[in-house]
Write a structure and sequence with these properties.
The chain has 13 helices and no strands. The chain is an all-alpha fold. The relative contact order is 0.23.
Length: 295
Amino acid sequence: MAIGWGEFFALASAFSWAWAIILFRKAGDALPPFELNLFKNLLGFSLVLPTLALVEGYQLPAFSLEEIGITLVSGFLGIAVADTWYLRALSLMGASRTGIVASLLSPFVVLLSILFLGEALRGWQLAGFVLVMAGILLVTWRQNRREIDAANLGKGVFYGIAAVFLMAIGIVMVKGILETRPFLWTTELRLVGGVAGMLIYMALRGQFETVRQRFMQPQPWRYIVPASVLGAYISMMMWLAGYKFITASEASVLNETANAWIVLLAWLVLGESIGYRKVIGLLLTSVGVIIMLLA
């Protein structure tokens, strides 16, 4: 596979996202996943805004109402809900397990492309999907009760799988718009959808004061702020740029390199175990993804 701008952005996004996850994990559970995601998205929105002014200007391009609606919904599903659930999985079962479960993103993108873009799933792609599932089961299967609580592991797997499924829906929804409309405007509209969805949820639940009080308490901002910059600004823009310049299947398989980085960095930086189960599980998921997307 030749390395062009699309491939570069997809690989760079994976590396940036991996570091963001490690920093979020180092921040611990000081902020619950919802508040952590809200801060991340607000910071990302604030950083994209001046970037938008410098590069594309504040004049709204010729988006149709349907395109605006699709982009906002894509942001709500892929940023507000999916990222909150991903951070919840991270809190429940650690960085390395969450990274492996996130390998389902590429198979989900392919399956959704079949449903909405009319592509066919060939035999080797089915075999690849089985390998991905086998790798996830190997890594998440409870080996030692003392290492992680079974209930937390089950919840973590559920939130992780649901998160990447919604991420896949969000990116498949907005793929055509990314290819035909200004990139930074599309990025910012997705963030608007994510932030607005979270604020509406807070209003319905009457949680504004609770969230404000949590933000006012001492927090490990030295980890949260750089993690948010990496996750909601640098990594997200490069992630979307990858999907803009190359096919969704190509971008998603290159994004899977983030999972290898997460497992490695979780071992080196966080001291999480990297036993044979995780190594073999990572190899199975990687091979499964490659088979599925290159078959």
